[in-house]
Design a protein that fits this description.
about 65% helix; 4 strands; transmembrane helix; two-stranded antiparallel sheet; single chain; disordered C terminus; mainly alpha
Length: about 300
């Protein structure tokens, strides 16, 4: 897809505004999780690169020197393609790392780590993700920038690839969420036949878990249903998201809520969730403290 350089710069500028708006909106919780720290780093990287691309394009001399390299306004296309490839390569590692972070939080494996230490660990992991991904793009991937001979009228047009990782991650998480819901819904049908008292207890626990899963799904959909519809339209429509815009704070906020819902449904202890005792990762968009009516087994 060919996009003009001014349109690319406008898109990057709008993305920077969106990133910082969401960072400010989540300022109280954003440094308490890996995904939040990564969102701040993404906003900083986007801002620096957008300002650099704009200065390079608008520079009066038509070129600048950076680290001994002479970069002209025609290199903007190359740099944007590299940026898009880095963002594409970051999607899955960020999702997996954030999922592990949420899993250990819900499972209370990280409750003993002080807040400052946790922030430093998240900062180091974020730096490693950026560093390793950039090395992968330049040294190991099969990325080849598209640099074609074009007419003078098309010299300010850039060939931009679409991102497909967003839809892939969303589909995997939707399948995981669906499996968790089905497992909770049919768990009472696969109970063994223990003594009557134990059977009542098992059924009570199964219902408690089923209610917790249903409430988690409802809480997630109550906030993010419009965004899911938008992703469904992207899946059906022939248009796509340019790679340099795919990784943004709005997507990371959605991914954060999605991962929390999946982790709570899959591994969250039902009794602790229903009593509001389970450690839930920070989320500025969804309220995960569920006002459940406890079952008789939970009250005892």
């Amino acid at each position: 897809m060919n996009i003009s350089i001014p349109s690319i710069l406008l898109g990057l500028g709008g993305k920077c505004l969106l990133n910082w708006a969401l960072v400010i909106l989540q300022r109280h919780d954003i440094c308490k999780s890996l995904l939040g720290v990564f969102s701040v780093s993404l906003a900083v990287v986007d801002t620096i690169l957008t300002l650099f691309f704009t200065a390079l394009y608008l520079h009066a001399d038509g070129f600048v020197f950076l680290l001994g390299l002479k970069l002209t306004r025609y290199h903007v296309c190359l740099l944007v393609q590299i940026l898009g490839e880095v963002y594409n390569a970051l999607q899955w590692p960020v999702a997996v790392a954030a999922g592990c972070d949420h899993f250990f939080t819900v499972a209370r494996r990280l409750h003993a780590i002080p807040g400052r230490t946790r922030f430093i660990v998240c900062l180091l992991v974020t730096g490693v993700l950026w560093y390793v991904t950039v090395l992968y793009v330049f040294l190991l991937s099969d990325f080849r920038p598209v640099m074609e001979d074009v007419s003078h009228a098309e010299i300010y047009q850039c060939w931009i690839v679409h991102t497909t990782q967003i839809l892939q991650i969303a589909m995997v998480l939707l399948l995981s969420l669906g499996c968790a819901v089905l497992h909770a819904g049919f768990s009472t049908r696969f109970l063994k036949n223990p003594p009557l008292r134990d059977q009542v207890t098992e059924q009570s626990r199964a219902r408690s878990r089923r209610d917790a899963v249903h409430r988690a799904v409802f809480t997630f959909l109550n906030t993010w249903a419009p965004f899911l519809c938008f992703l469904a339209l992207l899946l059906l429509a022939p248009v796509g998201i340019p790679a340099y815009l795919g990784l943004n704070s709005a997507w990371l906020g959605f991914l954060n809520s999605f991962l929390i819902a999946v982790v709570l449904c899959a591994v969250g202890p039902a009794r602790q969730i229903t009593q509001g005792l389970s450690a839930v990762p920070p989320d500025s968009f969804c309220e995960w403290r569920f006002p459940f009516i406890l079952s008789g087994e939970d009250r005892t």
